[in-house]
Write a structure and sequence with these properties.
Radius of gyration: 17 Å
Order of helices and strands: EHHEEEHEEHEHEEEEHEH
Number of domains: 2
Distance between the termini: 24 Å
CATH class of the largest domain: Alpha Beta
Number of strands: 12
Shape: elongated
Structural class: alpha+beta
Helix content: 25-40%
Strand content: 25-35%
Length: about 180
């Protein structure tokens, strides 16, 4: 477990700012204490400083996990956001998409969001902006990248892709068969 380098921090904050904008500050300086990001075995964890100090007492070989895994640094030095970060990012999301009940299952199977399944979209959503995908009951379902802006969405036909799938809460079930 170690602090992030400047490059890793930049990659992490760039990815997070796609989804929550300037609200990154809220993640670090919280009312219940100061939180930080740490790297352990190519995974970036989000943890309170108090718990991080306790985790430092465990040897690196014995430490499996700590805090919440926000994502993974790939071998090509890119940051990939994991679905475990959804509960922390959803309350601060700048751009949101709500799905019709008939489209929720398709999204949870890993498919992109089509206009026919779109119920609502945030007004100021730009093309290629990070979006949080919600059900009509305001339950966060996953992450996506807007394929069309909010203005382009209004003119699009029903089979047009509105958001590219990035991660969803159905991944736990789909990845269960790959666990050893």
């Amino acid at each position: 477990m170690r602090p992030l380098t400047d490059e890793e921090t930049r990659l992490l904050f760039e990815k997070l700012s796609k989804y929550i904008g300037e609200n990154i500050k809220i993640l670090i300086d919280r009312p219940d204490g100061v939180y930080c990001f740490r790297l352990h075995r190519n995974r970036i964890y989000y943890i309170s400083e108090k718990n991080m100090k306790m985790a430092c007492n465990i040897s690196r070989e014995d430490l499996v996990s700590f805090g919440t895994c926000f994502g993974k640094m790939t071998k090509t030095s890119k940051f990939r956001l994991h679905i475990t970060a959804l509960d922390y990012l959803a309350p601060y999301a700048k751009h949101k998409i709500w799905l019709k009940p008939s489209a929720e299952q398709q999204f949870l199977y890993g498919h992109n969001v089509l206009k026919s399944g779109l119920a609502r979209i945030s007004e100021n959503t730009l093309k290629y902006q990070g979006v949080i995908i919600y059900s009509m009951n305001d339950l966060p379902l996953g992450f996506g990248i807007a394929a069309k802006s909010a203005d382009e969405t209004r003119k699009a036909d029903p089979l047009t892709v509105i958001a590219f799938h990035q991660a969803d809460i159905g991944e736990y079930i789909r990845s269960e068969e790959h666990l050893t």
